[in-house]
Every structure is written in C-alpha cells, then in structure tokens.
Please model this.
Amino acid sequence: MSEIANTFTLDGQIVHFTPGQTILEAALEAGLYIPHLCFNPELKPHGSCKLCTVIVNGRSGSACTIKAMPGQEVQSSTPELDGRRRLQLQMIFVEGNHFCPGCEKSGNCKLQAVAYDLEMLNPHFPHFFPERPIDASHPDVMIDFNRCILCEQCVQTSRDVDGKNIFALAGRGMKSHLIINSPSGKLGDTDFALTDKAAHVCPVGAILEKRVGYAKPIGERIYDEKTIREQVAADAEGGL
Amino acid sequence: MDTQVSSQPQKVAKRKIRVATTSLSGCFGCHMSLLDIDERILQLIEVVEFDRSPITDIKHCGPCDIGLIEGSVCNSENVHVLREFRENCNVLIAFGACAVAGGLPAQRNHLDIGDALREVYCDRAGLGKQIPNDRELPLLLDKVHPINEVVRVDYFIPGCPPSGDTIWKFVTDLIAGHMPRLEHPLLKFD
Model:
C-alpha cells in the first residue's frame, strides 16, 4: 500500500507539511499568506484574533491552531472570508486609537499591512476614541496603549522566553487591557530591558524602542517596499 | 444589419463631468496632493470642469457629479458645507486620513473641548484671558468626526495625504466607469 502524501490544498494549491504542523505554519513555510495578527511562529498559538479563520473541509476554524492533515481542502482567500476579515480589522481600528500618519511603526506595522492586503479603505464603524495613557517611564522603551490590539505576544514572550512575566491582560470583554507587573503599574519600575525579546515582538506600534523611531524613513519600510504577501513569499524562499 | 446607427446625426459634444472639492478641517495637504497630478491636470480638464473648489474660489456648490472632501468635521461650518456637498454631489468621496478616519484633528477627541480652549487661549503667557467668541467664528463641536459619521459617503481614499498617483488612479477609474480600486503601492494610510 502506498503512503498517504502529507499534503493539503489551500485555495486549490497543493501545500506540503510536516506532521504536527498547523495549517498556518505549513502555509507560511510554503510562502503562502493567510492573514493573521496574534500568531508568532516562535510562540504557542492561541487563536484569539480569528483573522486566520479558514474553511477546512466545509467547517471554519483558526488556521493557526488546526493541525494540517493529509487531503484537507482549505479555503482562505474567498470573498466571504476576506469580507469578514475586513470587518474584524475595522472593529480593531475603531476600538483603539490607530492613527497611522502619526505612528512611528507605520510601514512596519502588521495591522496596517493586513489592512492593505485586504484593501480596507475606511474604518466603517463609529470610532470609540478611547482615552488611554502612554507609559514612557522606561529609559529605553515606551508603551503606547492606544495602539495595543491585545494579541498577547508580549505577554507570552516575556513569560515563556524572557522568563520575566512583565505583561498580562486584565479586565474582560470590552474592558480588556494590557497591564504591567510592577507596584506602580509603570514599565520603568520593572526589570524589563531592551535586550528582552518581548521588547521586539509587538506587531503594531504599542511597544516601541526609544530614539530609533524614524531612523528608517517612512516610505522605505518593510511594507512600503513589499506587500505582506510578497514578504511572506520572500521569507519562505530565504528560509529554504 | 441595422444601418440606423450610421444615419443618426453626429453626437453632440459630451457634457463635462462637474467636480467640486473642499477642505473641511484639513491642512490642504490633500489638495496639494491633487495638484501633484502635475501636467495630467490638462488631461483632466478635457473631461472635467470644477465647481466649488479652492482652485476656482466658487463659494457654493451647484449640482455636481463628483464631490471630493478633504478634512474631518470639527465645527458647525464644516457640517453645513458637508451637507451642501452631499445634497449636490451624485458621488461623494472622502479623500485623506482626516475625512476617512478623523485624522489629526480627531486627536483632541479624548480631551474636554473647554479644557483644550482654556489651555490654548487663557493659560499661556502673552495671550489674553478670553476664548475667541466672535459670532463670525463657527462653533467647535465637542468631538471631531470622520465625514461618514455625518453624511453618507460613497468612496474612500485613505492616506495622509493620498499621493497624486493614488488620486489620479481613483478619479480616472471612476470617470471611466470602472469600479475604483487601490492596491499596493497606491494604498497607504500614512
């Protein structure tokens, strides 16, 4: 009996996978992009942003948590799924204060790059314009809570990689927010350091290294040069 | 074969498309960017004529095919101008980050408007102690709104400002009767 090939199809395209990989991991390794925000290949996926929702054999699920299996038929870039993703992005944009023209991260920001990819032209919903503070108490890193999308990558990285446990999410539902583990609640009163991996995982402009904001000018940044799709394809090629 | 087509009288010259533009609470950067289409403006005016616009200095908008709105809604005059445009324009386009999402003016939205005015006009050395209240001055709204929170908007061109190429692509698509589409590298939020 012949062995069953470790492949599935993504929008009709054959994708090879290593047993144990998730659909999203296999797709990214093959240079195929499925929109996502909270996923980081070095961290345990938790499927919270729901942007990578795909249809697997007729049922929807998060591509970052579903294991790849032989023969799966996965749909991702369909008008219906992209429409839902655009709505999710619009909700993220109006919930915080995402003012791209005034953000140091513009051009390197994953949220912005996904919005470009999905051709999100406006935020559609009424803005919340929430009042959120900025924490500049740390000498090397600042936190702008206005831009936090609650992806938890800093929480996971600080806890699991740096072993410091500096961040957490508090509150529930609409009141969920990022908190800092120090008596004053300020980053400057923790042992957080610029060398921590957690200082560099933020996909948006919430955790920023100080004094390097515009070292690379706007217009010459990652997603100014390439779309996030082209970047994923280039990364996969480089990884081979 | 039907030969009627050739026997029809020659077509009369096509009516030009009327376009109105305005800047509400904006910095006129988007209008500067509109002028960045450079010499292509000569192609544009073959098919387009401008109604109310900072380019023509016409003060009120008549019936138009396309209205381009720069800037967000931050005072009572902005509301009146925006409604005038909506009433008169078949297609209304928000162009630029302020019109699309509130932009820079909306960065005051988490502040109390009274506190902001006092801080600017009363609490600074060398200034008087009075908030300007001439009846000629439009009243500020307590919050700044993107234009789609006030009127129905047909299309959005994001960017701060959208580049001349972006505006050109969008407007020429629209005039040609295509569904306007912005993709990399024309689609930018910054």
